[in-house]
Amino acid sequence: MEKIMVCLKRVVDYNVRIRVKQDGSGVITDGVKMSINPFDEIALEEALRLREKDKAKEVFVVSIGPSDCQQQLRTGLAMGADRAILVETDTDIEPLASARVFQQIINKEKPELVILGKQAIDDDCNQTGQMLATLWDRPQATFASGLEITDGSATVTREVDAGLEVIEVDLPAVVTADLRLNEPRYVKLPDIMKAKKKPMETIAIADLGVDTTPMFETTATEAPPVRQKGVLVNDVAELVSALKQKGFLT
Amino acid sequence: MSKVLILAEHDGAVLNPSIAKCVSCAAELHAETVDIAVFGDACGPVAEQAAALNGVTRILTVERAENAHQLAAILAPQFAELASDYAYLLGPSTTYGKDVMPRVAALLGVGQLSDVMSVDGPYTFKRPIYAGNAITTVQAPADKPVVATVRVASYQAVATGGSATIEPANPVCALPDHSRFRELKSGGGDRPDLQAANIVLSGGRGVGSEENFELLYRLADKLGAGVGASRAAVDAGYVPNDMQVGQTGKIISPDLYIALGISGAIQHLTGIKDAGTIVAVNKDSEAPIFEIADIGLVADLFAVIPELEKQLG
Predict the structure, then answer these.
(1) Model ipTM value
(2) CATH architecture under which domain A3-245 falls
(3) Which of A210, A241, B203, B258 is the most exposed place for a label (fewest CB within 10 A)?
(4) What is the pTM of this model?
């Protein structure tokens, strides 16, 4: 393959304890640590491994968002990506709009493989990869936990509810990464320094000429209902008794 | 009045329990009709089961050889072709529904609402974000089809007793040949399905090995329970991936959930927040799972399991 495209999303770090704003207008993100969406990091790791196995010549990363996304793109470059593209916008965009933007990049770059995380841990939509594959009129292999590339096709092991499904798709294709696809490498200081010299291109989203109008409107954001505090029992006998009181184990 | 079309999930013989829950969500839309589309190479038995669900009007069967393996790129164009008359297009939020529905949305040029947990109005829905740590109320436009996946753990299954009509449908569209099914390696076992079981026992890293999970299987058999696991247990290789409960595994809502040796990471709790009663057994009294458990027992699961078996007789 010539090129692998990896899509990275800047999200609230997965370790951060999420707090909802009192006025119901959203989640608190000011001053909160931001990172590459963990599933996208796994996607990038997989692309890098393919390049290291000489399955591809170049890995480039793309992100859509405000100029601060460059931090995540730089981390991607430090991990080993060859170059980065930022499609700059200050407004949140929905998966369909992201897919349309990525489709424009695909038209320009013509990668043989596009890999991204199966879902972003902020909106948990799990749609972008599938929508992108559809706009591109190409196959999708979602929830990948195993990926083999041979001669113009990809054999993908997918984690599904029933177990592990193996499918084969012709390239070019979109693969979405699941948790167990790999364990991403750590970024070391020398790599961070090297990354500063790698190309970072910025494109204004308006220049791509796609419709990014949101379809949905979020009118309220609330904390989830809190479960009532429970009780501690001292031994199994008490546990069984407590369960029987609730109507179980009869 | 509007119409709902639901994408059926099945394995060729049995309709997936998630569909009865989708029908339940559809009922909240107060639609004029609720239809279910069944794709496959032989749809008969599954169509019969779908027709028996209460509140369903018609079952549309699309029987073709290409549909045997439920590949998203093959099913989506056909479902989109059938969609023209419908205001709501629903699929279950299972790996199958998540695979197919976004393709349908993109073909129709619309966005999708993933994991709908409640219907607040004809175009108003609630869905979780940030692993369920925030719930959003979302407004969808009234002049476009609503494509959504239904958060199965948020709904009860509708009862059977219905008698929908079954009719063949023949959506005309080009079907791609760029995707091929090779095999399905099933976790296997004839234990109750994790997503449908009323009681679920779950093991975490504390169980320690694949062999030790036998203790849970035995206890589960006594209780008629399904068995799940935390991500840590799956990563460690104790159990196959289809047992994983949590944000990126299965989100379940059994009446009783017993967590053994599970610490209670946020991502795991996402998967069990809707359980009726949560019981936690962990020898670490500081384990976060005790914050959400209704009944907690600070003890060694290896002592608790045999004692429980004894007390159950």
Answers:
(1) 0.95
(2) 3-Layer(aba) Sandwich (3.40)
(3) A241
(4) 0.94
